[in-house]
Write a structure and sequence with these properties.
1 helix; TolB-like translocation protein; six-stranded mixed beta sheet
Amino acid sequence: MTSLRRRLLVLVAAVLVLAGAATGMVLHAADRADRADRPRSGDPGVGTGTVTLRQKDRLVFVNGTAGPHRKAVASVPSADPGHGRIASDLECVRFYAAAGTGVCLQSNPGVLKQSNRALLLDSDLRTKRTFALAGTPSRARVSPSGRFAAWTVFVSGESYASAFFSTRTSILDTRTMRLTPSLETFSIVLDGKPYRAADVNFWGVTFAADDDTFYATLNTANKTYLVRGSVSGRSVTTLTENVECPSLSPDGTRVAYKKRVLSRTDLWREHVLDLRSLRETPLAERRSVDDQATWLDDDTVVYALPTNGKVGSSDLWSVPADGTGSPRRLITGASSPAPL
């Protein structure tokens, strides 16, 4: 064999070895990417199926587990929330439902800016109406009868806070489709006196069962207040200070909320307020909760907390509403719970 042929054979062999190594690297990278999208050890699997708002004894939420169903509206049995997760085709950033009516807030990145919208849903999660949103989705609620829906978004560019985000909260009458674009148009009674200010913000609406009364957070002059409002009267009245993201109990007697524990910090503690006595009870959850809690029943509240070690993911936790007991993780990889 000539030296030239030997050199050619050595060169071909080297090319094949390098090609094989490169192929192995590509397959290894693809396998790692594929495994990253699969549910991690301890995470539940997600099945596809029919999710409706007519189902009883189900807990509906936004799925946050890795994979193709991330952000999908999903449901689990209320009695066994750690298993049997079924995902729909509907994707939301925030979601809530009651009495066969749902609201889904979506946010899609665009070339120049985000496209944000609210979807009013029927009991089969079909879109009845679509509403453009003025900013990034934050909170969503539906009244117990399904008559009203509310949502809050973060907006920027307000004249009084041009360097910061502010909020805008809307209420929709789902029967007449009359939309109140901003609660800032409602009249305000603060500490017993009519009040007006340029820096007024509202967020975190929760509805009573009478199809008129609601509660929300009012922010003005660097203070937050719990307000009781009337949809028909287009007015709100302050009840007490340092209340954010209220959630009315099913029996209508108490409000769960997050209370700022250190001024000018994003540290909150979950409390329950008795609306008759205005006596507040700190709950057993001692971690900072930046969420609008939901009542599973008259005795238990549930809320989202960031998942340890997973950026952009959250888990649902529950805690007794009377201050006793201890928190327990209800569902991994989930947010925006709505009990049916």
